[in-house]
């Protein structure tokens, strides 16, 4: 039972002196309103309303309960108004450090929602390249690391999401060269590399029971670069197959500018963490930004860009 909703319905039934009138005003069916009141009475263990053919009469318990419920709902409304007021009055400049690919393909688009929620907060976003540890000159550092852990330090970190390094290519390239159906066929393709993928070990995803990891080293790579934006541009143009994080390619795959190569296989996992200095009291602007990130990325041990949750 949604207790808060039931309390609101209870007050509305008394205010409108009728189940049907309350139902119309709250866009509910009369049967739903009746069930909610019955459930509420069962929950408190007392009859709250005596129903007659002409009107509704509160019982003694109902009168006492209604008085307390109105006070609780009033205090809740005041609390919500206070939070909304604080959100709109929160101001200042927030300095954020993030890996360039995550900043480009995930964080920057999300700032639209953050700006709407906190119109007086400004964000300074720095994305020079990979971020492997906290930088105390920033309010929040977004860190990426292989696996599920990062090296401990004098800071607090919480994982936002898990991403997989996957293989992608443009539809045009795959139309010319064919779509690999097994990892061994990658030897026949143009494979772009980065410092992380000069030697590749493909791991089977969950569900490919019995499949074994496949390791190989691409030869005569048409492009070698550590810049994901460059890799993305070259891959989209049809230069070859490349490994990129799912958070960077999810939109391009959805728009059919890229295709995933060998679905069911990945190279390794990447975890994205939000890190802040280890201190008890965070500035309100920092807490607001972190709460926003945790709301958008409710880490649940899956890759949200592969499962469609994002």
Automatic annotation (TrEMBL):
Pfam families: HTH_1, LysR_substrate. InterPro entries: LysR-type_TF_proteobact-type (IPR058163), LysR_HTH_N (IPR000847), LysR_subst-bd (IPR005119), WH-like_DNA-bd_sf (IPR036388), WH_DNA-bd_sf (IPR036390). Residues 1-59 form the HTH lysR-type domain. Keywords: DNA-binding, Transcription, Transcription regulation. SUPFAM superfamilies: Periplasmic binding protein-like II (SSF53850), Winged helix' DNA-binding domain (SSF46785). It comes from the Bacteria. Belongs to the LysR transcriptional regulatory family. PANTHER family: HTH-TYPE TRANSCRIPTIONAL ACTIVATOR TTDR-RELATED (PTHR30537:SF5), HTH-TYPE TRANSCRIPTIONAL REGULATOR (PTHR30537). This is LysR family transcriptional regulator. It comes from Roseateles agri.
């Amino acid at each position: 039972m949604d207790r808060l909703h039931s309390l609101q319905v209870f007050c509305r039934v008394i205010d409108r002196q009728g189940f049907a009138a309350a139902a119309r005003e709250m866009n509910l069916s009369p049967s739903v309103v009746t069930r909610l009141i019955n459930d509420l009475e069962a929950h408190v263990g007392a009859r709250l309303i005596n129903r007659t053919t002409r009107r509704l009469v509160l019982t003694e318990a109902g009168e006492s309960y209604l008085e307390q419920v109105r006070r609780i709902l009033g205090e809740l409304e005041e609390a919500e108004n206070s939070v909304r007021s604080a959100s709109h009055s929160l101001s200042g400049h927030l300095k954020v450090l993030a890996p360039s690919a995550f900043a480009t393909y995930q964080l920057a688009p999300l700032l639209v929602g953050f700006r709407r929620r906190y119109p007086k907060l400004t964000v300074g976003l720095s994305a020079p390249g990979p971020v492997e540890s906290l930088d105390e000159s920033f309010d929040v550092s977004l860190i990426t690391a292989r696996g599920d852990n990062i090296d401990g330090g004098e800071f607090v970190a919480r994982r936002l999401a898990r991403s997989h390094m996957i293989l992608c290519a443009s539809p045009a390239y795959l139309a010319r060269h064919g779509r690999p159906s097994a990892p061994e066929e990658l030897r026949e393709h143009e494979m772009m590399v980065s410092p992380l993928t000069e030697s590749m070990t493909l791991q089977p995803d969950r569900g490919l029971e019995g499949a074994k990891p496949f390791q190989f080293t691409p030869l005569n790579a048409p492009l070698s670069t550590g810049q994901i934006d460059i890799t993305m541009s070259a891959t989209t143009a049809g230069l070859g197959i490349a490994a990129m994080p799912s958070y960077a390619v999810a939109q391009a795959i959805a728009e059919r500018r890229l295709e995933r190569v060998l679905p069911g296989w990945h190279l390794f996992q990447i975890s994205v963490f939000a890190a802040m200095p280890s201190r008890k009291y965070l500035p309100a602007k920092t807490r607001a930004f972190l709460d926003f990130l945790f709301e958008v990325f409710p880490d649940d041990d899956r890759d949200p860009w592969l499962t469609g949750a994002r």
